[in-house]
Amino acid sequence: MKICFFGGEEIGGLGSKHYIKNLSPDDKKNIKAVINVDSVAQRDGSKPYIFTVNG
């Protein structure tokens, strides 16, 4: 399991694109899941929200 934190997301995902670009083909094949925590805070902390995208 790898836990990664990337910068440059707001300017085109530069950090994550660089990471993927430099993985070996075998490493890319071994990716089973990705959890993207895009925002970890909200203005009104009284109501938790979960948003998903199916596609």
Quick tags:
single chain, mainly alpha, 24% helix, elongated, Peptidase_M28, M28 family peptidase
Estimated radius of gyration = 14 Å
**Main pleated-sheet profile:** none
| Total domains | 1
Oligomer: single chain
Distance between the termini: 24 Å
Helicity range: 10-25%
> Helical element count?
2
Tally of DSSP β-strands: 0
Unreliably modeled segments: none
The average pLDDT value, as a whole number, equals 81
What can you tell me about this protein's structure?
This protein has helices spanning 14-21, 25-29. The chain is mainly alpha-helical and 55 residues long. It has one domain (1-55).
Question: How is the secondary structure organized here?
Answer:
Layout: H1 14-21, H2 25-29
Q: What is shown here, in short?
A:
By secondary structure, this protein is mainly α. The protein has two helices and no strands.
